[in-house]
Design goal:
CATH class: Mainly Alpha
Order of helices and strands: HHH
CATH architecture: Orthogonal Bundle
Radius of gyration: 17 Å
Number of helices: 3
Distance between the termini: 48 Å
Largest sheet: none
Structural class: mainly alpha
Strand content: under 5%
Helix content: over 70%
């Protein structure tokens, strides 16, 4: 059981490192990487809970695979949007792009 707590602590740390990176950084690529880090922390949680609490079922693994596919699609769309913003504004810094502000 202590191994489960150790892995969950690592997942907890990864999630909040990602949240901190998303909230404090202004570069859109760095923000995208922070979101991906948070999604990977959630995947670790699903796999650990599946292994230690529901060993006979594969629900956590299916959720993890589903999140991985969603993250790949999200990364592709986000990178395409960032490339278009860079072409238009010559910057990917959130503070430099005035039209994205409310």
């Amino acid at each position: 059981m202590s191994e489960m707590k150790f892995i969950l602590a690592i997942s907890f740390a990864l999630f909040f490192i990602g949240a901190y990176g998303f909230l404090t950084r202004r570069n859109m690529i760095t923000m995208l990487m922070a979101v991906e880090l948070m999604l990977n922390a959630v995947n670790i949680n699903f796999v650990v809970f599946n292994k230690y609490l529901f060993a006979g079922k594969l629900d956590g693994l299916f959720f993890a695979v589903f999140i991985i596919t969603i993250a790949a699609a999200e990364a592709a769309v986000a990178i395409a949007i960032i490339i278009n913003l860079y072409r238009k504004f010559k910057s990917i810094d959130e503070d430099d792009i005035d039209t994205l502000r409310w």
